[in-house]
Design brief:
Layout lengths: L7 H4 L7 H6 L9 E5 L6 E7 L3 E2 L4 E2 L5 H4 L22 H6 L9 H4 L4 H4 L9 E2 L18
Parallel strand pairs: 2-5
Antiparallel strand pairs: 1-2, 3-4
Length: 149
Amino acid sequence: MSLRIKPFWETKKLAQMTSDEWESLCDGCGRCCLNKLEDVETGELHFTNIACRLLDSSSCRCQDYPHRKKLVPECLVLNPETVLSSNALPSSCAYRRLAEGKPLAKWHPLVCGDHKKIHHQDISVRGKTVSEEFIHIDQFQDHIVSWFN
């Protein structure tokens, strides 16, 4: 009889994770780096295909992660307290899923062991965005999209 040792994300709460464990939860989809528009009447949040200027569109990773908040003051910096209070995370986000008591998705790199699967499963924003540097704020509404949840 062999005992299965549960992975850290099944045994720890977000607040108990080490910084390395926390960072490894990011699936690399890039959706948190997209500009979103909020309907002022309903409060509903709409995702766009307009990416933060720091998002590397091929890797779906921040080009200056350590300094992102200084360079982009409106950058969403996640921590265990902000995960559930932010409506800017897609329902597929590992941080959000764990905070809601759900398991990681089968395509998540920690589960499947493949960091490229998120791109092959068409879950990431790789190749589907335009940098905010090239879009005027008045045109943001023209870039609302519906992403995989």
